[in-house]
Specification:
Blueprint lengths: L1 E6 L11 H4 L4 H11 L4 E6 L3 H11 L6 E5 L8 H8 L5 E5 L21 E4 L4 H16 L1
Parallel strand pairs: 1-2, 1-3, 3-4, 4-5
Length: about 140
């Protein structure tokens, strides 16, 4: 089984940026958590600060035998119609995750443009949101 894990802008600075919001865990900690928790799953990780790279990854998931997707789009969550449109073409299970509770933050963060093209959104559980995302896509896969 292959699960693609995409991370958007500024998540490369996880653990350094706004620790009071995002905590001190790094993106490497997220990778280690998932690979330790699910050794049977082949995770494909990509972080990019560039919208086009993320869209290319979404497109590649259509043909690269990816079984499911988990994504934290970062700031693109609230702004990217282009990512939303690419996601609409993707038929595999896909779950959006957020480390912070986007509904407890600034008003502009409460709206997820990308989430409308996902199966669901998990928000506010720190890096454990990624584990919940894996559980969610596994449940979606077992329902098919």
């Amino acid at each position: 089984m292959k699960i693609m894990v995409l991370n958007g802008p500024n998540l490369n600075l996880l653990g350094q940026r706004d620790k009071h919001v995002y905590g001190s865990s790094t993106l490497e900690d997220v990778k280690n958590l998932l690979t330790e928790q699910y050794p049977e799953i082949n995770f494909i990780f990509l972080q990019s600060n560039h919208e086009g790279d993320l869209i290319d990854a979404i497109h590649s998931a259509r043909t690269d035998t990816i079984d499911a997707m988990i994504a934290n789009w970062g700031g693109f969550t609230h702004t990217s119609v282009a990512i939303h449109d690419a996601l609409e073409l993707l038929t595999i299970p896909k779950v959006e995750v957020h480390i912070s509770n986007i509904h407890a933050r600034e008003e502009f963060r409460e709206r997820s443009i990308t989430g409308k093209a996902m199966n669901g959104i998990i928000t506010g559980f720190g890096i454990y949101s990624y584990v919940l995302g894996v559980n969610a896509v596994l449940q979606l896969l077992s329902n098919n």
